[in-house]
Design goal:
single chain; alpha/beta; Rossmann fold; four-stranded parallel beta sheet; two-stranded antiparallel ribbon; about 40% helix; globular; binds the ligand Nc1c(NC[C@H](O)[C@H](O)[C@H](O)CO)[nH]c(=O)[nH]c1=O; binds the ligand CC(=O)[C@@H](O)COP(=O)(O)O; LS/RS; LS
Length: about 160
């Protein structure tokens, strides 16, 4: 199902564990800052709405999405977090650089999920243009940050 057919901010709280005892890390890419800040706000709003405490949420910034895997790894190694949300916005430019950044970031985050005991949520928009990014970070398709927050709560509560 394409995002166009699903609002990214929609969730049913009755199906989500209470996050009051969970600790979250959020690593935020500084590239396309207007978009990543919107994703961060969406994630925070959903985490708090589902019971998370602000004092249990740690935020770090990294330069770009390519650095998200390292930032998430370092956070897992040094901070007592139950889940990490990796936030980025990659927008197609004139060259193939977009392809390399997207695939490396996705693979790096997947590797962390396989190799560590802490779930890392892929909250990285990979858009053809700025309007698509706007639409998915609080615009007409909702906010992928909210979607990522719900995924983080569910994954941290597994088992
Ligand atoms: N063009 C975008 C980038 N590029 C930067 C890389 O992520 C990386 O920081 C750099 O190559 C140094 O290692 N990053 C994004 O997050 N979004 C983009 O659109
Ligand atoms: C995703 C990118 O790295 C891209 O925005 C950079 O732009 P360009 O491909 O025009 O160098």
């Amino acid at each position: 199902m394409a995002t166009a057919n699903k609002n990214l901010s929609a969730y049913d709280k009755t199906t989500i564990p209470n996050a009051k005892d969970l600790r979250f890390g959020i690593v935020v890419s500084e590239w396309n800052e207007a978009i990543t800040e919107g994703l961060y706000e969406g994630a925070m709003e959903a985490l708090l709405d589902c019971g998370a405490k602000e004092e249990n949420i740690i935020r770090w910034n990294v330069p770009g999405s390519f650095e998200l895997p390292f930032g998430a790894k370092k956070m897992i190694e040094t901070k007592p977090v139950d889940a990490v949300i990796a936030i980025g916005s990659v927008i197609q430019g004139e060259t193939k650089h977009f392809d390399f950044v997207c695939s490396a970031t996705a693979q790096g985050i997947m590797d962390l999920n396989v190799r560590t005991k802490v779930p890392v949520i892929f909250c990285v928009l990979t858009d053809n243009n700025m309007q698509q990014a706007i639409d998915r970070s609080g615009g007409k398709h909702g906010n992928k940050g909210a979607e990522a927050a719900i995924a983080a709560i569910k994954m941290a509560s597994l088992g």
